[in-house]
């Protein structure tokens, strides 16, 4: 059964042409089509020329968004001894040791990001089935396994995000709020593009970038001219 589109959705889709837009123009259109009754996020959906079933074609890394995410990030930390107090003092919303591991196993999920110190990772590993499907499992590549808790907490609270390509080679990542200015969204999108280029997997052959679309949470997809974005200088996106 084909779901009937709402009048609002049809009107918004009618504003988007079937073409790749210049980056700033695409983001201005994203803002124009963010008409939901709540603060919508800005999302990027990027198809890359990789096959993540091969280990040398996987992409998992972090990006520091210069203009932030526009979201309050609830950070949980699993550590031992004085490190638990250090995490709390550094701004962690939740911090604990074995007891926190037990609570998470029993279903506690009132956090957006989990950081762990390397010495507790053998115990945290048993949470894989709970955390893995939600993308919350700490990893060294993602910057969420570290002894430097104050720096990690500060960076993620300020707008650092972990992201990865899914099994079809597509990256889905939030890069701000639709309420940001188009210029601030462009600054964040440029930082994301540069991070993806810097972390190109060694096994990626041929054309790396395939397509990039942006949208607000409830808005239509808008194609971005990826070559124009890559050609932008950092100052032009500021």
Automatic annotation (TrEMBL):
<dbReference type="Pfam" id="PF00687">
    <property type="entry name" value="Ribosomal_L1"/>
</dbReference>
<dbReference type="InterPro" id="IPR028364">
    <property type="entry name" value="Ribosomal_uL1/biogenesis"/>
</dbReference>
<protein>
    <recommendedName>
        <fullName>Large ribosomal subunit protein uL1</fullName>
    </recommendedName>
</protein>
<keyword id="KW-0694">RNA-binding</keyword>
<dbReference type="InterPro" id="IPR002143">
    <property type="entry name" value="Ribosomal_uL1"/>
</dbReference>
<dbReference type="GO" id="GO:0000049">
    <property type="term" value="F:tRNA binding"/>
</dbReference>
<dbReference type="InterPro" id="IPR005878">
    <property type="entry name" value="Ribosom_uL1_bac-type"/>
</dbReference>
<dbReference type="GO" id="GO:0003735">
    <property type="term" value="F:structural constituent of ribosome"/>
</dbReference>
<dbReference type="InterPro" id="IPR023674">
    <property type="entry name" value="Ribosomal_uL1-like"/>
</dbReference>
<comment type="similarity">
    <text>Belongs to the universal ribosomal protein uL1 family.</text>
</comment>
<comment type="function">
    <text>Binds directly to 23S rRNA. The L1 stalk is quite mobile in the ribosome, and is involved in E site tRNA release.</text>
</comment>
<keyword id="KW-0699">rRNA-binding</keyword>
<keyword id="KW-0810">Translation regulation</keyword>
<comment type="function">
    <text>Protein L1 is also a translational repressor protein, it controls the translation of the L11 operon by binding to its mRNA.</text>
</comment>
<keyword id="KW-0678">Repressor</keyword>
<dbReference type="GO" id="GO:0006412">
    <property type="term" value="P:translation"/>
</dbReference>
<dbReference type="GO" id="GO:0019843">
    <property type="term" value="F:rRNA binding"/>
</dbReference>
<dbReference type="GO" id="GO:0015934">
    <property type="term" value="C:large ribosomal subunit"/>
</dbReference>
<keyword id="KW-0687">Ribonucleoprotein</keyword>
<dbReference type="GO" id="GO:0006417">
    <property type="term" value="P:regulation of translation"/>
</dbReference>
<keyword id="KW-0820">tRNA-binding</keyword>
<dbReference type="InterPro" id="IPR016095">
    <property type="entry name" value="Ribosomal_uL1_3-a/b-sand"/>
</dbReference>
<comment type="subunit">
    <text>Part of the 50S ribosomal subunit.</text>
</comment>
<keyword id="KW-0689">Ribosomal protein</keyword>
<dbReference type="InterPro" id="IPR023673">
    <property type="entry name" value="Ribosomal_uL1_CS"/>
</dbReference>
